[in-house]
């Protein structure tokens, strides 16, 4: 049951790139997340039972009367979190793009960004896990679901580890899985701290500049600050070639070459034909780029470095081992 608290003052359009979240890095967003964290911490205790009241990312207060027995997740990141929390049996439906864990692919599909409202209602869920990143285009559909008497929880859009912990905690509170969330977050924090300790061994003069290639030409995109990739590079003491800019940034191939990166990381290998490294090596004007000269062109799974969830620490570790194998490789 939702009780409206604050009006949504404005809705901003965001650029959607396959496999990525928006990653806007604004002080206002951080302040709002910190405020929401404070509210949730004050209202949460180890022995909390249902009903629970949660301030979600739509600026609404969601009251969940009983522990959900049937849950639908309409975005892959929420699905990953729900499975990690041990909610496989409760998951009644997922989006068409849910691909992890493998068991998610076997669940009933409810559509992609344009989810099927009638299908969702027919599955008789107690709770629908929505997401702030798609709130603008899904607002009408979510309203129809609420009018059918189904609780809708809009999970925050995360662009950092801390915001991901918030997402995990929010879903856990709504589903009665707080103990599992505590264990997951503790493990992630341990992994992040271990990477930070290892990275401290890297002297400043050995710091590498990295070009993160999110999408290849003709519509070349990279990632700036306010994104998971940027925070991961910073964590492992690497320099983001586009770190002075924010969000997802279009580049010309000429301007990309000027960044003169020592390492190139691509995140789209599973969605294009051919070998990204070979394609980069064959680009006009790229032969003298240090990363190309030294053969330091690597691919990582986009979901590991852009999808908010328990595998983010694994993504940061993979980046670390590729960029600084002498420091991080086992």
Automatic annotation (TrEMBL):
Where is each Fe/B12 periplasmic-binding domain found?
A: 70-327
One GO biological-process annotation of the entry reads: cellular response to iron ion
Q: Could you confirm whether the keyword Nucleus appears in this record?
A: no
Do the record's keywords include Metal-binding? no
* Entries under InterPro entries matching the protein: ABC_Transporter_SBP, ABC_transptr_periplasmic_BD, Vit_B12_bind_prot
Record's CDD domains? YvrC
PROSITE patterns documented for this protein: FE_B12_PBP
Which residue ranges are recorded for the region named Disordered?
Answer: 21-51
Please provide the record's keywords in A-Z order.
Answer: Signal
Domain of life according to the entry:
Bacteria
- Report the sequence similarity comment from the record: Belongs to the bacterial solute-binding protein 8 family.
Name recorded for this polypeptide: Iron complex transport system substrate-binding protein
């Amino acid at each position: 049951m939702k009780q409206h608290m604050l009006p949504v003052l404005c809705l901003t359009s965001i650029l959607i790139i396959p496999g990525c979240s928006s990653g806007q890095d604004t002080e206002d967003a951080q302040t709002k997340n910190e405020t929401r964290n404070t509210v949730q911490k004050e209202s949460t205790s180890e022995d909390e039972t249902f009903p629970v009241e949660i301030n979600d990312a739509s600026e609404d207060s969601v009251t969940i009367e009983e522990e959900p027995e049937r849950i639908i997740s309409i975005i892959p990141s929420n699905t990953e979190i729900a499975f990690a929390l041990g909610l496989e049996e409760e998951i009644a439906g997922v989006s068409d793009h849910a691909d992890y864990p493998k068991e998610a692919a076997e669940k009933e599909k409810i559509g992609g960004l344009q989810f099927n409202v009638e299908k969702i209602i027919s599955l008789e869920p107690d709770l629908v896990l929505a997401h702030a990143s798609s709130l603008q285009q899904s607002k009408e559909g979510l309203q129809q679901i609420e009018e059918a008497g189904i609780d809708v929880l809009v999970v925050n859009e995360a662009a950092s580890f801390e915001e991901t912990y918030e997402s995990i905690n929010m879903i856990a509170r709504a589903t009665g899985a707080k103990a599992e969330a505590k264990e997951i977050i503790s493990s992630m924090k341990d992994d992040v701290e271990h990477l930070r300790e290892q990275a401290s061994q890297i002297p400043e003069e050995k710091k590498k500049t990295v070009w993160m290639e999110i999408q290849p030409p003709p519509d070349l995109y990279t990632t700036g600050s306010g994104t998971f990739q940027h925070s991961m590079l910073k964590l492992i003491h690497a320099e983001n070639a586009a770190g002075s800019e924010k969000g997802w940034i279009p580049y010309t191939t000429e301007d990309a070459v000027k960044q003169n990166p020592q390492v190139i990381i691509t995140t789209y290998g599973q969605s294009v034909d051919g070998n990204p490294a070979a394609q980069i090596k064959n680009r006009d004007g790229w032969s003298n780029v240090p990363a190309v000269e030294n053969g330091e062109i690597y691919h990582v799974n986009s979901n590991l470095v852009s999808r908010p969830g328990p595998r983010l620490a694994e993504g940061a570790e993979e980046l670390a081992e590729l960029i600084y194998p002498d420091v991080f490789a086992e």
